[in-house]
Amino acid sequence: MVAPTVAPAPVLVHVPHAGTTIPAHVRTGIVLDDEALATEVRLLTDHRTDLLAAGTGEVGATRVLNRLSRLVVDPERFPDEREELAAHGMGAVYTRGHALQPLRDPTPAVVEELLTRYYHPYAARMTTEVDRLLTSHGRVTIVDLHSYPRVRLPYELHHGPRPPLCVGTDPDHTPAWLRATVAEVAAAHHLDVAFDTPFAGTYVPLAHHLTDRRVTSVMLELRRDLYLDEATARPHDGEARLTRFVTEVVAAIASAHRRHDPARG
Q1: Domain spans of the chain, in order of start
Q2: What percent of the chain has pLDDT over 70?
Q3: How many other β-carbons are positioned within 10 Å of the β-carbon of residue 137?
Q4: Is 0.70 surpassed by the pTM of this model?
Q5: Which residues of the chain have a pLDDT value below 50?
Q6: Which H helix or E strand runs over 167?
Q7: Which CATH number is 11-77+105-264's, of 3.40.630.40, 3.40.1080.10, 3.40.50.1000, 3.40.50.300?
Q8: Tell me, what's the pLDDT at 265?
Q9: Taking the mean position of all CA atoms in its chain, how far away is CA 227?
Q10: Is the CB of residue 223 less than 8 Å from the CB of residue 161?
Q11: CA-CA distance, 90 to 110, in Å (whole number)?
Q12: In this structure, what are the phi and psi dihedrals at residue 253, rounded to the nearest 5 degrees?
């Protein structure tokens, strides 16, 4: 958790897929050689999204950054049959890679160990941070920050346009005011937006999902070619623009909360 640098706002920026660290004991269970694993990490990491979120602390947001690779566990995925990608080997513990090639073949005991050691503590940390902000402010908005490649990867289940900004929503946790706030800031930055395509949904801790409407959430999926070279993951001049955009989205959400409780109109 990274605390805000000004008075805290009821906004939590979640960056789950920027990490690249794979602990040695997890690496031994991955069947890819080092070159193939490096390719997998390059393709599946939301590179530099932690840096795109760096300015949000200056407008009051708390940040939760996952430093581990999603190849260890994916904290965004449901840990059970609710996860549609689980049938394709890409649930909370991946057994397949970006092209649905074998990644590892863990025993049920190994899967449980990974969930116990990494997934559940991460979920508990998010729940704690959300609860802390609820105690302080009575409400909280999660901004779930991701990036995605310009060209569809084989594991992706859904086709569709690949706009500069894909905004993911949840029917129970993304109210109209939050959708409108993101769309307004995107328009000011001349970013074309598609809602819930090619990716849908947004992160809400399971402890609050469908039960606590004080928790609102929206997912920002920024197309990677807008801010980096996808072949090398090196940034270009577009990174500064998108960093400003992310900061301004969070600032606009924080401002809406300061003016009034947006959930009550």
Answers
A1: 11-77+105-264
A2: 96
A3: 16
A4: yes
A5: 265
A6: strand 165-168
A7: 3.40.630.40
A8: 46
A9: 17
A10: no
A11: 15
A12: -65, -45
